[in-house]
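Table S5 (text form). Sequence records supplied for joint modeling of the two-component complex.
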Amino acid sequence: MTDAAFADTANRTTGRTGRFIVYAIIALIGVSLFLAPFLFPDVRSQEVASRICIFIVLVASYDLLIGYTGIVSFAHTMFFGIGAYGAAIALKLMGPTWTALLTGSVIALVVSLLLAALVGMLSLRVKAIFFAMVTLAAASVMAVLASQLSDFTGGEDGIIYQIPKLFSPATKLLTDENGKVVKIFGVSANGKMALYYFVFLGSLLLYLVMMRIVASPLGTVLEAIRENEMRAEALGYRVVFYRTAIFCIAALIATCAGVMRAVWLKYTGPDTSLSFAIMIDILLMVVIGGMGTLLGAIIGATLMSLAQYYLKDLMEVASQATAGIPWLPDLLAPDRWLLWLGILFVLLVYFFPAGIAGTLMKKGAH
Amino acid sequence: MKSLGETFERFGGVNLLPVLIAVIALVLIGSPSTWITLTVAGLAMGMMIFLMASGLSLVFGLMDVLNFGHSAFVSFGAFVAASVLAGLGAWVVADSVFLNVLALLAAIIAAALFGLLAGWFFEQVIIKPVYRDHLRQILITMGALIVAEQIILTIWGGSPISVARPHFLAGSLIIGDVSIETYRIFAFALGLAAYIALYFVLNRTRIGLLVRAGVENREMVEALGFRIDRLFIGVFMAGSALAAIGGAMWAGYQTLITPAIGSEMMIIVFIVIIIGGLGSIEGSLLGALMVGLMGNYVAFLAPKMSLASNMLLMMAILLWRPYGLRPAVQ
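The corresponding structure-token record, covering 696 residues in total, follows.
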């Protein structure tokens, strides 16, 4: 074999190793999430796990836009929020029944679809950068409306409501002969567990749907549009149609994620569903994980969520430890967490635009 | 229908739209004195928005760079001006117009200088590495915006800061039963002066000629041997300085500012640019006046719909003219 061939083989092996590492991480995350109620039974970990599940869906659906099609939208939280508020308002008005949840979700999905189609048709015809501006404007108008129409949305305070009885901690999923809750590995099989698996399985289903979309002919057309819009158009694909279609699909998936978030939290307010901070989270997760790889969404969402919950504690400690030094405590305070994330974000986009999954998997692969 | 369109064009075309909005509002509002107050407020607001929007629009037209971090300059301008005014507290409240004007000038010049410097830094560090890559441009400038907002939070803290208006601009002018805040007249005049200066520079000087040529066809101007990238840094710095001045004026208008001031204005600035068409200061002025008027009228008629009405206006205009009213680049 020649040197070049050796180098080639070596490259392919590192590519394969990278791929293997990514798959191993994904498998680890998947198993941990699947067994989360047993592995991490405390309340805070449960919250983190469910947040990771929901954000994986949200980030993956955003990746369909930014990574696969090359559309930058800032309205993704808008659809997430529509889902959350749809479920929340229905559960509040109609009581904690399945019918209410279903009605709210369906209405939210219809509203999202209409809005997405409208925004898409209006502004996907022109430059990508126009679209980014239009979606940013639309999202902030929606956020302002939600906080002003307080009769429906509860304004800044948000809405607190009850969810279907199956999910309440008092519900016994399995009972032994004495009528007590069965304990599996020391964790009682109550409604809380049902609620977690509702979120987990819902997320898994949506994620598989997205994997299917990416692998389908539609996914290929989208990548063709991202690579060369003119050529795709010249080959006879109606670019505007495909872009609007994927924008609508991503919006619907984000809406479903919003519904799950609303059911899990039993509370919906601007901070949990509509705020721009969530949009920034999604952007960071996509970029950290890797754009254009759905697997990246899993890594990005998990890393960011873990960091958000546990790194802030660390910053608190660091801030107190440096209390004597000027400036430093201010910069290390947990509130300044976004500062560091922002810097990290800029550096990542400069040096690793492919993100963790992309960098690992593409190294040496041809 | 065709003759109606021709008549519309003959009487000024899209330039008539702000007038149209004002007339419709007069009918809806009814009371002329309220209408005049609102119109002046709308014009003043429009001019301040124009200051913030014009730089962004030119930068995009010239170099195909859309800076999502533009609002950081607005916020910084507001806070720098507020700090200067607070530092010169004695001059601000003094009963002498001369000292008042001096304090005001100091604040505005400080904001503008800061805008120039920050613009230079921003262009060199943030934007230069990602020319011609829209996706990364959007992401990076967004990231820079987050960092800038956090820096403001670190320096000035999160609680609202009150801004002192110079004494001679504090009152309001009363003509008949119409009362007009002096500050609004001042803001309008400053904006108008900035527009005239920009118009003069762009249309009557050699640099302006190059900028306009660069907006139209950058490659051709570069092929002729002109350094568009150097010109671009200048335009970027000037645009940032204008945004900072706009922020300073806006701070005085609001009298109470929070670090979110920039991102709040950003949405309106984007709407203005989209309405006006990218790359032209005439378009920005037109869009800014329409948005300013619309915002004030609707805030009076149906307070909760203020921002949404501008959104609807933008949607309607995008349907009618997908590239905005007076675009310089397609």
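Note: The mean pLDDT of chain B is 85.
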